[in-house]
Write a structure and sequence with these properties.
The chain has 174 residues and is of the alpha+beta class. It has six helices and nine strands. This is thioredoxin-dependent peroxiredoxin.
Length: 174
């Protein structure tokens, strides 16, 4: 009985500690993480640019590789739109470095080993024994506000959809 009450209390505390879901127009939660080159990347330092922030489960797995290589293959189109790509997973810096080198990824992969940033974006699967980021993405506008949220991502089609949405968002922002 006491154990059941303890688990119930822990569940309530966990639920109450969860942040309100992010919404379009809300300020994007700021963060500072290190990339595969051991550089500290702070989201607020990207203000004035469009940011494509994508969370992914695991380096060098089929879906994550497809998505990362698609961003790589379209990086010039995204740069033309004055957009910065930031990939985030709970993998280590060494893992990011190997993944980035293997596939020649020309953008930052950020290491969120404790999952705190993914949790802020409701993009964390935490099973206590292990955790990984959910495949969720966000477009953040130059003022630091969330312009688009993707919770159902198909790695093969995602970057094409992001490019179309980014074009539309930029037209309506001008």
């Amino acid at each position: 009985m006491l154990r059941t009450l303890g688990l119930f209390a822990l569940t309530l505390v966990t639920l109450s500690a969860q942040a309100a879901p992010l919404s379009i127009g809300a300020p994007a939660p700021d963060f500072a993480l290190y990339n595969q080159h051991h550089e500290r990347i702070k989201l607020s330092d990207e203000q004035g640019k469009w940011v494509v922030l994508y969370f992914y489960p695991k380096n060098d797995t089929p879906g994550c590789t497809t998505e990362a290589c698609s961003f790589r293959d379209n990086v010039n189109k995204l740069i033309q739109k004055k957009a910065v790509i930031l990939g985030v997973s709970v993998d280590s810096l060494d893992s990011h470095q190997a993944f980035s080198q293997k596939y020649k990824l020309p953008f930052s992969l950020l290491s969120d080993t404790d999952g705190k940033v993914a949790k802020k974006y409701d993009a964390l699967n935490d099973f206590i024994v292990f955790k990984f980021a959910k495949r969720h993405s966000f477009i953040i506008d130059p003022t630091g506000r969330i312009a688009k949220i993707y919770r159902d991502v198909d790695p093969q089609k995602h970057v094409g959809i992001v490019l179309k949405d980014l074009t539309m968002l930029q037209k309506t922002a001008n």
